[in-house]
Queue: 2 jobs
Job 1
Amino acid sequence: MTAASPIRALTAYANRIVFVVGLGKSGMSAARALKAGGASVHCWDDGEAARKKAADEGFTLTDPSKSLLLAAAEALVLAPGIPLTHPTPHPSVVAAKAARVPVLGDIELLYRAEPDATYIGITGTNGKSTTTALIGHMLSRAGVDVAVGGNLGTAALTLPKASVYVLEMSSYQLDLTVSPMFDIAVLLNVTPDHLDRHGGMNGYIQAKERILRSHDDDSTAIIGTDTPETAEIANRLLTEGRNIVRIAKDSRPVADLIDSGACPALAGDHNKQNAAAAYAVGRALGLDEETILDGIRSFPGLAHRQERIATLDGIVYINDSKATNADAAARALSAFDGIYWIAGGREKDGGYADLDPYLPHVRHAFLIGEAMANMAAWIAQRVPVTLSGTLAEAVSAAHATASNDGSGTVLLSPACASFDQYQNFEIRGDAFRDLVLALPATARIVHSTREAA
C-alpha cells in the first residue's frame, strides 16, 4: 500500500465558494484540498480551538448559518461527525438546504476528483475496519496499486492517487456520499447502533444500504447473510437482477482456513465472515485463489481489534477496545475460552442480553466506568465479578487472578463506549497495552510491536 500523498488539489471547485463545516481530520483535509485547487474556502466549527487552528493555517472563518455567501456556494462539505438529519440537523445543514446548496462529504469529493479509479467500499455495524484492512493487505501483497482509508483512519483526501481505493464507510459517511460510486460494495451485517443519528433502526439500515447503490452493470454487491436484516436486503436485490455475492461465517474455503489455525489474527466466527468478504472481493477483481488465501493467512491484524498484546507466564492479553457495543464484544467472547473479562464504560442502547450465550467462556469479570453497576446487575451471580472502577485497577486485578489460576486470556472487550474515562477507544486500548506491558512476568512474549498512538 502506498503512503499518504502531499495535499491533493481539487481543481473542480476553482474560483468557487465552498463551505467546510467540522474541522477535524476529514474536514481539514477537505479544506486544504479545496484551497490547493483554487476554491474560495470558508471554514466553520462549533469548537473555538478547531476554529483557531484553521485560522492559524490561513483559512477564512465564516459561519454558514449566518452568512449571505452561502447562497452563492457550490457546496457545503460536512464532516461525518456533524448531524445531518438526527437528532436535529446542524444549523449549517438547515441553512444549506434552504439555500439549495448540496451537502457533501469528503468521500464524494475523492470520487469526483478520481472518477476513473476502482472503488471498493466496506460497511457494517461490526467488522468493517478489519475487513477493509484485510482487503487492502491482500491487494497490496498481490501487487495491486491500492490506497486504504476512509473511516478506518486515513482521511480520503489525504490518500495518494491509486488505481484502487479501499474505503471503510460509516453510516455517517454514506449519508454524505450522493454518488453511487462503488464498483464493489460490501455490506457485512447490521445490528442496532447509532440509532440516535438515524432516527431509529430503519433509518440506520437505509444509511448502510446506500453503499449498495449500483455504480454500473458490472458493479458487485457482497452481502453478509448472518444477520436477518442484511439477508433480506440480499434477497430483495437478487429479485431486482443485481449481481449479488452472499457470504457468511461458514463460507468456504476461508472458514476451513481459519478453523485450521492458519490465521492467528482472524480468530472467531465473525472473522470468518470478514475473510469471506475479502475472498469475494479478490475473486471479483480476478485474483486467483492461492493469492487470496495467502493474503488472508499473512494478515497481521488491526490495533484494538482482538489485538494480541503479550503472553505473560502463559496468559494471553488481548486488546479489543474497539468493541464498543454488545454485539462486538460477543464476537470476542465467542473466540476465546478461560476469559478474565475487562468490560464497561459508557453504556449504549441495547443492553447486554446478546452476551448471555458467551458467559460460560468467562471465568471472572472486572468491571469499569459508568456501566459498572448495571453490568454487575446483569451478570447477577452467573460470573464472579470485581468492581474495579478504573482500567488500571482492572488490569492489575485480572493479572493477579489469572496468574493464580495459571492459564487463560485477559480480554479487554468493553461492550461500551470509552467517553466516560477516555477520549476514544484508541486511547483506551493504548492505555491497556501500556498497563499490560508494565506487568511483571517470568516468561514474556510481546506480540504487538506497534507504537502506541
Note: The first strand starts at residue 17 and ends at 21.
Job 2
Amino acid sequence: MADLTCDVAIIGAGTAGLAAERNARKHGASTLLIDPEFAGTTCATVGCMPSKLLIAAARSAHGARQAGVFGVETGEVRIDGPAVLRRVREHRDRFAQATRDGIMDLPDEIRVQARARFTSTTTLELDDGRTVAAKAVIIATGSSPMVPGPYADLGDLALTNETVFELDDLPESLAVIGGGVIGLELAQAMARLGVRVALFDREEMLGQVRCKKVHAALEEAMGQEMALHLGTDPQPSEQDGRVRIDWDGESDTFDKVLVATGRPPNVKGLGLETTGLALDDKGMPQIDPETMQCGEAPIFMVGDSNAGRPVLHEASDEGAIAGRNAVAYPALVRSERKVNFAITFTEPPLVAIGDSPDDSAKIGSADYTDQGRAKVDAQNTGLARLYAAAPEGRLIGADLFCPGADHMGHLLVLAIGQKMTAGDLLDMPFYHPTLEEGLKGALREICHAVPLKVPGDHDTGNPPGV
C-alpha cells in the first residue's frame, strides 16, 4: 500500500509543473506536486529575469556611451560592477520570492518536498522513504547546464547561467563557450559592461539562426562588440589562476569562462527505465507534442524536461495540456500548438517565428540599416526576412535581427496564427515614423512575387524617411 495516493502526481514545481498541477486540479483531479526544493522557477531564479536585469544595466551603459551621437555629452562612463550585480540579485530575489510565495499558497497536502523516481508506470519512490501511487504522472523536472569535463575541472573559474549572477564583481575578461541564446545574451551584456569578451562555438552559425542573411547581420553586429571564434574547438586549461583557451593554434587567457553549451533535460535518476517506455540513447521517451503523452502510458512530459520548445510560454502551455490530459487519460484531447516564437534578447533582438521557408516559399526582406525610425534612434542595424507560402501569399514564418524585433515579432505571430496574407497585413495601418513601418517593403516584395493584387486605392510608395 502506497503512503500517498492521488489522481495526478507532478514531478517538478517550475513553470510547467505549476501549470500542470493547476489545470489538473481545475479539472477535478486530486494532485501531488513533488519537488526537492520548491526554490522557484528557472525563469525567476537563474534564467529570464536575472539575465534581463544584467542586459538592462548593459543597455544603460551602452546608451550612455552612445549619447554623443545626439549631441549629449556624458563624460567617461564608469561601471560599478558590484553595484550592477547587487541590483541584479536584489530584483532577482524579489521575483523568485514572489514565485515561492505562490507555491506556498498551495494547500499543504498538495506540496510534497522530496525527490521522486519511478518504480513502475504509475508508482513513485521518494527519497524520504515514502511511496506514491497515482493514476497518471507528469514529468516537469526542467533542465540543467551541461558542463563538459575539461570545464568542470576548472572549478570556480567556470561559470554557468546558474552561477554567473552570484559574482561579487564583473570580471575584467570572459570567455564564453557557446553561441546559443544564453551565450549571446550574456556575452553582449558583459561586453557592454566593459568586460573583454571572446565567444567560441564549434558551429559556424550563432543562435541557431535559420537565415544566412540574418546571420550575417548578427555576426557583423556581435563582432563589433566582442571577439568571435566560430567553427573552432576551444580547449580550456587553468594557468596561474586564470583560464587559458587554446584554439586553432592560438591561445588567450581570461579571468573566467562562461559555459553555455546547452541545458539538457533532467531525466537522470528518474527511473524511466522502470516505466516500460521505449527510451532513446539519451534516455528520453517519445513525446506527442499535441498531448504531451509519453508513448501510450499515463505519463506526460512537459517544459524544459522534454527539450521540445524550451521557452516559458510553451512550458506553461505544455503544463496545461498535460494537466488536462492526465485527468482525461485514456481519452486524450489533442491541442493545436501555437506558432513557434523565440526571442534572443540581444540588442537588437534576434527573433525566429513560425516555419523556415522551403523552395516554394516567397521571401520579403526589410533592411533596417537605412530605416527611418531606426536611424532617428541611432539603432539602424540588421534586417527582417518574412516568409510566405505560394500561391496565396499566406505568411508562414520570419527571422528578424533588427531594432524592435521583439515587439514586431508579436505582430507577425498574430498574423501567422490568423493565417493572414502579406496583403492582409498591408491592409492594416502602419503609423509613421515607426519601426513596424519598415516591414511594408518586405510585405510588398512578397505580394509582387506571389503575385497578390494591391488594391487601386493603396499608395505603393513610402513616406519620406521610411
Note: The chain has a mean pLDDT of 96.
